[in-house]
Design a protein that fits this description.
The structure is a single chain. The chain is built from 2 helices and no strands. By secondary structure, it is mainly α. The chain has a domain of 25 residues. The longest helix is centred in the middle third of the chain and has 29 residues. It is elongated and about 100 Å long. Keywords: Membrane, Transmembrane, Transmembrane helix.
């Protein structure tokens, strides 16, 4: 019975020389990676801007003038 089990071929895993390449899958993987890098960069810039002490705190808004003359 042990000899019968040895005759069964195991499927091959991974890429082989004859396998075709998937350009769409590769392109989507590259776009996915670039999207993550851009997102991390934008979050880093936003955090740096928020935490930097170089820019002053926004001043309170000026008093708004009334829309019409109230002295008449």
């Amino acid at each position: 019975m042990g000899g019968a089990m040895e005759a069964v071929e195991r499927p091959h895993h991974g890429r082989h020389r004859g396998d075709h390449r998937d350009p769409v899958g590769t392109a989507l993987t590259v776009l996915w990676g670039l999207g993550h890098l851009v997102t991390l960069a934008l979050l880093g810039v936003a955090a740096d801007h928020q935490l930097s002490a170089d820019h002053p705190v926004a001043a309170p808004p000026a008093q708004a003038l009334p829309d019409h003359d109230t002295t008449a």
